[in-house]
Design goal:
It is built from twelve helices and nine strands. The protein is α/β, with parallel strands linked by helices and 294 residues long. It has one domain (3-293): 3-Layer(aba) Sandwich (Glycerol-3-phosphate (1)-acyltransferase). The strands form two sheets. A seven-stranded mixed beta sheet has the order 1-9-8-2-5-3-4, with helices on both faces.
Length: 294
């Protein structure tokens, strides 16, 4: 959304949703997303392709895709609903599996990288991480509406999530590396390479590319890479799953180390997505064949 009108619409929507009780917000968001699947043919067809690739040809791909849209709607509703006064409730209603793995990584001097995907509500995971003594620095894609970007950054800061916007001249990699060298925690979306120029991997049996960011930073700084699955509960709240640290290759050229490490990340992503395939709300092409079909 561009200009003051777009900013006003988002602020109004945020104000409205923030007033709703959690169950109404949650069910309303899911319903709105589900209904959107009937009007967004291109996005629904892409979700169907993803679900067949993940779950096999026997899956009811149309039904699964509509649920993907429903979970996407819930994500957006929660993103607008989450305000500073909701922090305690979000933390209280979340569960973390393998929390000791996060604590061990945070205690290490070289910092930690949380590699997350477009599953459930990853922003709620950032809030829970901060409550465990691991406030995150996250990289986010920029928007054309600068006023909206500033507001978004301020809102996330109030939820203990520091955001650096990816834009020309922003030196994002340097900011992330500096945080890791200070022993801090960064969070990176790691399951989607929109430009198709990342690291070649095999994901769900088919070749594609993934962003180099997590493994490139790990090789540069020595940071631990933790894949983190983020999921909605069937009702209120979330479940966050901390996976074992990825093996960061120590031998070979930097390019070889990043390539082998990113393939390990791809395997972790498969495990994360298979736990709740219909919560993987990616509506853009992920595999080269999808880009051609689009």
């Amino acid at each position: 959304m561009k200009g003051p009108v777009g900013y006003a619409v988002v602020r109004a929507l945020t104000g409205l949703l923030s007033l709703l009780p959690e169950p109404i917000m949650r069910h309303g968001g899911y319903a709105a997303g589900y209904l959107a699947s009937f009007t967004s043919r291109r996005g629904r067809e892409m979700a169907e392709r993803h679900q067949r690739r993940i779950q096999g040809d026997t899956v009811d791909a149309r039904r699964a895709a509509r649920r993907v849209f429903g979970h996407y709607g819930r994500y957006y509703a929660e993103a607008f609903w989450m305000r500073p006064r909701r922090r305690r409730a979000v933390i209280r209603d979340s569960e973390v599996e393998n929390l000791e793995t996060l604590h061990a990584a945070v205690a290490a001097p070289q910092g930690a990288i949380l590699a997350v995907g477009h599953l459930g509500n990853w922003e709620a995971a950032g809030l829970r991480a901060a409550s465990e003594g691991a406030p995150v620095l996250a990289a986010a894609e920029g928007l054309s509406n600068e006023r909206l970007v500033r507001w978004f950054v301020q809102m996330r800061a109030m939820m203990d999530i520091e955001v650096v916007i990816v834009r020309r001249g922003a030196r994002v990699t340097e900011a992330l590396a500096r945080r890791l060298e200070e022993g801090g925690v960064v969070a990176l979306m790691s399951d989607r390479d929109l430009k198709g120029t990342g690291i070649p991997v095999t994901l769900f049996g088919e070749e594609t590319t993934l962003p180099a960011g997590a493994l490139s930073l790990a090789c540069r700084t020595g940071a631990t890479v933790l894949p983190v699955g983020t999921y909605f509960r069937p009702g209120r709240g979330h479940v966050f799953v901390i996976h074992p640290p990825l093996e960061v290759p120590a031998e070979g050229t930097l390019e070889e180390r990043v390539r082998r490490g990113t393939q390990g990340l791809a395997r972790a992503l498969e495990t994360m997505i298979l736990r709740a395939p219909e919560q993987w709300h990616v509506l853009q092409p992920v595999w080269p064949g999808d880009r051609e079909a689009r």
